[in-house]
Design a protein that fits this description.
The protein has helices at 5-19, 35-40, 68-81, 95-98, 106-113, 126-131, 164-172, and strands spanning 57-63, 87-94, 120-124, 140-145, 150-155. It has 174 residues and is of the alpha/beta class. A hairpin with a 4-residue loop joins β4 (140-145) and β5 (150-155).
Length: 174
């Protein structure tokens, strides 16, 4: 007796799933000690050199205009940034993330920039992206102290982005 069509379909699905190779995981690469300097040598969305700062610290937010997790985290950042005016806030936009699956564009990032004027957006190239460790999931967050030392990283492969309370705690230690 033949199994019912639904059972055959389920069996075929199990067979296909068991034969499909598992996608390799991307190892988490740490940001290079030169990452912040590479960002500072870049130009922002308006073509102005980022340069160094005398701020107490630098908050680096890797994001894309179309990313729902990024938009959620932007709300958390906005809740924290007003109480930390002595921190430099940089939004890093990597072309590969922005244009992934034709979801975003330079026009989309410009439109988003008008809604978050407190975040200085820096479009980066492959070299700067490599210095950041090529984070494949966004948002990814890097927090640097005044000396340019990386003090915290939030990578979505490891955990969800931090809450505003967690960010406030970290920023208060800079």
């Amino acid at each position: 007796m033949c199994p019912a069509p639904g059972i055959r379909a389920l069996a075929a699905l199990v067979l296909v799933a068991s034969c499909t190779p598992t996608a390799p995981t991307v190892p988490i690469a740490p940001a290079s000690p030169r990452a912040l300097a590479a960002i500072e040598a870049s130009h922002d969305l308006d073509g102005v050199l980022v340069g160094t700062t005398t701020a107490r610290g630098t908050f680096v937010f890797v994001f894309a205009s179309w990313c729902p997790h990024c938009k959620d985290e932007l709300r958390e950042l906005d809740a924290v940034r007003a109480s930390h005016p002595d921190v430099r806030w940089l939004g890093i936009n990597y072309k590969g993330h922005e244009e992934y699956d034709q979801r975003g564009s330079s026009e989309a990032i410009r439109a988003l920039a008008t809604t978050i004027p407190w975040l200085r957006i820096v479009p980066i190239d492959d070299d700067v992206f490599a210095e950041l460790g090529r984070p494949p999931l966004i948002p990814t967050i890097f927090i640097y102290d005044r000396a340019g030392t990386l003090v915290a990283t939030f990578d979505r492969r490891e955990r969800e982005p931090p809450s505003s309370a967690e960010l406030a705690r970290i920023l208060s230690t800079l």
